[in-house]
Amino acid sequence: MAGKLHFSLVAPEREVFSGLVDQVDAPGVEGDFGVLADHAPFMTALREGVVTVIDGNARRQFDVHGGFADVTPAGLTILAEQASEIGSV
Fold it and tell me: What's the pLDDT score for residue 89?
């Protein structure tokens, strides 16, 4: 079983989310993408849409408006122009 992914979602005014999760799905400008632990590094611009954070059976969703996603060996960081939580399941 894969390890956990360190994920951080940052908006200009504050850090919206930070923690260890199983998966993050995000709206890239070239299409939606998912990131798991040990993903290959890449960087992409984001379009307006929903970022879904999956940890076990729990899901949290965040509305984002633009920004960038950066996947490194340390994890995934999303720098969003605007971000707010819209719910959890």
Answer: 63
To the question of pTM greater than 0.85 for the whole model, the response is yes
How many angstroms separate the CA atoms of 55 and 70, rounded?
Answer: 20
Per the CB < 8 A criterion, the answer to whether 46 and 27 are in contact is yes
- Residue 60 corresponds to which amino acid? R
Q: Which residues, 6+ apart, have CB-to-CB distance to 11 below 8 Å?
A: 80, 81, 82, 83, 84
Contact between residue 75 and residue 6 where contact means Cβ atoms under 8 Å apart: yes
**What angle (nearest 5°) sits at the alpha carbon of residue 11, between those of residues 25 and 35?**
20
Inter-residue contact 82 to 13 (CB < 8 Å):
no
